[in-house]
Amino acid sequence: MAKRKILIVDDNPKIVELVRLYLEKDGYRVFVAYDGLEALEVARQKQPDLIVLDLLLPGMDGLDVCRILRAESEVPIIMLTAKSTEEDKLVGLELGADDYLTKPFSPRELVARIRAVLRRVGKEAAQGPAELRFADLLIDRRSHEVQVRGEPVHLTPTEFRLLEVLAREPGRAFTRLELLDRVFGYDFEGFERTVDVHIKNLRKKIEPDPKEPTHIKTVYGVGYKFNED
Questions:
Q1: Parallel, antiparallel, or unpaired: how do β-strands 216-219 and 223-226 relate?
Q2: Virtual torsion, Cα 80, 62, 32, 97, nearest 10 deg
Q3: pLDDT, tens digit, for every residue of 173-209?
């Protein structure tokens, strides 16, 4: 089986080489870039399976790189940030990043996050129907594709997994912590507003009117549920 390809984007050569060492030891094929423009060039040429993207880059920062990449593809993105405030983390998620890690970080934890995100991408349909069909929404769990009114909608791996979890049990109210657990796994030490950001992005893509959602309903004081009707 071909090795999964990972692109590391960071302007600190020591961090790049340390992460490269851990990833190659884990069996990945690694590409590197040290600034935003180089990151876009390498991403377009090499078509990596996942990108580890630092926020603070020379030339073009990581947020702009993320914005451009997300407009071109659904490649999973894990953001690295030296900023630890909640708002700084949420900005990257709002642009479509799948996960984030705050510097300084453990290379082992980064490898674990990469494995978790790639599992979500390549996760085969579990028990249950291969397709989930609703009035104007089709979720194909085998191909990881979603259609709204017959038109394909491009979701990030995290958005797809979140939608799948909700839609498999329509009417059930999930707490944010339950969704974090189902979507990210037990090892994810995220904060609950992460779920809110991904739900906001998801609604923009699948709801006729994101401000008055018909599919993903807010259950006040609890979390969210998928509305079968």
A1: antiparallel
A2: 60
A3: 998 888 887 787 645 556 677 889 899 999 999 998 9
